[in-house]
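1st attempt posting a full record on here, be nice pls
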Amino acid sequence: MTVVRPVALLLTTLLVLSGCSLLQQKPVPLYQLDSGSAVTPTKDNGVTVLVGPISVADYLRQQHLLQRQADGSLIATPDARWASGLANDIDQQMLRQLAWRLDSQRLVLAPAAPGFSADAQVMLTITRLDSGPTQPAVLEAQWRLLDRRGQLRDSRLIRLEEPHSGPLAEQVKAQSALLQRLAAELATAIEPVAAATEPTPEAPRKKAPVAKAKPQEPAAAGPKIPVAEPIKIDTEVFRF
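the predicted structure (as tokens):
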């Protein structure tokens, strides 16, 4: 006859329950932004662009996907996460999208290495990028565009919306489409600034030499008028 001790029975029960719990747990899906049809550019001598700094709102640094509710509030989804963080995804997608649309491999994320000289720099601030089960994907951002001399050439506030069918995967696809549209508008604004040639500084004009006044020549000597000289004689006679 086998006797089962209470301690052994308790341990066996706990192991069985923990095993069942592990089997019932589902893996958490991870999501990344989609780059769409972007391909790697081929030009090594394209325009040089400094991309960034790219600033995002603090709430976009959450690891969980956030869901916008009808009342405007945001709720974290416990069973869905960003694979590498939404802020990091935005950096990489903007770099890839702009490089593809400008057909140049000479794009660098800020901060650039010392000595890097850019034809243009785009500074981007994203204040909103989210969606919800019944709410469209919305992107709100501002960009500032500088030329090669660091002069501000363009500044714009932008708001974009993209509908979706509801599931998380469709929401992520809609948010990706918004970033692609933003990159398309940015590329259009960057092209003329990056292609503009720097004005050649004008050579200083030489001042016309000032003609020195010639010293006045003495007037030509005319006939001298004789000076009367008195002659002391008994009678004063004036001789000319």
